[in-house]
Amino acid sequence: MDATPDDAPHTTPGETPGPPASTRRDAAYASSEAAPHTTPQDAAHVPPEAASDATPQDAAHVFSAPASDITPEEAARTLREIRESQARVIRARPWFPPWYTTGVALFVTGMQVLTEPGTPGAVTATGIVVLTLALAGSVGAVVLFERQRPHRSLITASALVSFMAWVAVCVGLCLAVALSLSGAGVPYARTYAGLAMTAFMAVTGPLVGRWITRRIAAAVEAG
Amino acid sequence: MAELDPAIHAPVRLRVMSLLAAVEEAEFAFVRDEVEVSDSVMSKHAAALESAGYVAIRKGHVGKRPRTWLRLTPEGRQAYTSHVAALRDIVARSGLSLTDG
């Protein structure tokens, strides 16, 4: 692998940082010539074939026990550590980025504005194109740049149901506001309803995202 | 019965595999920090797992900065699942409870 010095250290909040940044930077990523920079702590994890890079005191930590020699206690401890580390990684970021759901709500609101009676056709057509491109860009950003989200195999049914319930509440709020304003004869009722939904989603989205993430992490931790 | 996979039995490799199993994809630096190893050690393990066909490495940029992402391949996910199943078997045969740790 090629060196990527800009794979800069970044520890998520509340997590234990790794080795000193200087140690990491001077060890060119993935290059065999970087081995001499390995610190004692690092070499504790060096696989057998790379053990020559480790210092004498590191050798004790190099895993050498055959897989068949693992004891039940070690296996249980390993499984517990796996669950804990997975839960920690999942908690590091919300299941969905809050800006995304807010963006979708803004798209809906924009559509309401553009389709209000009296809006010039050219404005409506242009606006729909712009909004659609913006939504497509948001979807693309999530797909391409928000990859560090819980793997789909870990998404529990209860997490999905919770998310759908929240979406249903948002849509229900929008409908309720639209119908009540429309019934009262307020112009642009759908637009105001869309704005209310957007505000609601912007406020509650981060909370819901974190809550669902915690539930997924708890399920993983429980095994 | 599932068997332990020697390619991922080493503690750091198993930690890397378990982290990657939890996410769709993870940045190299994030995994390195989580596993608490240096660039060079992380690179060696990543390269070994890539050679085994268990991890796919993708390079790209965020702005002008180069970034490297890791993810489990389907084979890697299968190997990880089998390895964990083998660990569970060992625990289950002993009568230990996983909740006891």
Describe the structure.
The complex is a heterodimer of chains A (223) and B (101). In chain A, 62% of the residues lie in helices and 0% in strands. Chain A is mainly alpha-helical. In chain A, helix 7 (157-183) runs antiparallel to helix 8. The longest helix of chain A has 34 residues, at 189-222. Chain A is elongated, with a radius of gyration of 26 Å. The two termini of chain A are 35 Å apart. Chain B is α+β, with helices and mostly antiparallel strands and 101 residues long. Helices cover 57% and strands 18% of the residues of chain B. Chain B is built from 5 helices and 3 strands; from the N terminus they run H-H-E-H-H-E-E-H. Chain B has a 3-stranded antiparallel β-sheet. In chain B, helix 2 crosses helix 3 (28-35). Chain B is elongated. Classes of the chains: A mainly alpha (223), B alpha+beta (101). Chains A and B meet through helix 1, helix 2 and helix 4 of A and helix 2, strand 1, helix 3, helix 4 and strand 2 of B.
Low-confidence stretches of chain A: 1-65
Largest interface: A-B, 70 and 61 residues
The major pleated sheet of chain A works out as: none
Tell me what portion of residues of chain A adopts beta-strand conformation: under 5%
Amount of helix of chain A: 55-70%
Mean pLDDT level of chain B:
89
